[in-house]
Every structure is written in C-alpha cells, then in structure tokens.
Write a structure and sequence with these properties.
With 100 residues, the protein is mainly β. Bound molecules: iron/sulfur cluster (SF4).
Length: 100
C-alpha cells in the first residue's frame, strides 16, 4: 500500500479557471477520473468557479485515480513520481496519463 507521504504530487496545473488553482493546485488531494467512452483521464476535482479554495500551504497530491489502464496505475493508485494537469480533451486532464 502506498504511504500517504509518498503520494504523487501535482507538479503543475495550468487550469486557471479551477477554484483550487491559485499559483498551482491547492486541493489537499485530487481524484483522476474517467468519463464513459472517453480516452482522457480527467481531473474529477476540477470546479469551474471564481471562488478560490483549498489549503494555502498545500501542494496537491493524487488521492485516487480511476484510470486502471494507465501505466502508472496499480490497484487504482497512481505511482508516477509526479503528475501534470492541464487542458486536453477535457478542460482539466492528467497529462501524465500513459495508456498501457
Ligand atoms: S499518471 Fe496515470 S495513474 Fe497517475 S494520475 Fe495520471 S492517469 Fe492516473
């Protein structure tokens, strides 16, 4: 089991419309999801709001990832050293996603 302190960090998020993004992602942990029938790995924590939230001193980490087909995924946990999030097929996609 992955130690919580070793969870992958969100190294960069360029989705400035997200309520958790102010100079990077400040959510405690994000979830990467999977839209039915889509090939992308979207950030399910994204929220389109002008209100800013999250925790000031936090660098977000990947709490859960549903993309079991990603090379970095084992037992629905991400094992990449860190990830990047940005616009892709969706407004906020995991850009580190690598299908097997
Ligand atoms: S790199 Fe792969 S396993 Fe890690 S968050 Fe992105 S899609 Fe999920």
């Amino acid at each position: 089991m992955t130690d919580m302190l070793e969870m992958p960090r969100v190294h960069e998020c360029t989705v400035t419309d997200c309520g958790y993004n102010h100079d990077g992602c400040h959510a405690f942990a994000i979830t990467i999801g999977q839209e039915n029938g889509h090939q992308n790995a979207n950030c399910a924590t994204f929220i389109d709001t002008s209100a800013k939230g999250g925790l000031d001193r936090v660098i977000a980490q990947v709490g859960a990832c549903k993309r079991s087909d990603c090379q970095h995924n084992a037992e629905l946990e991400c094992h990449a050293p860190s990830i990047r999030v940005g616009p892709g097929q969706d407004i906020a996609d995991c850009q580190t996603y690598q299908p097997r």
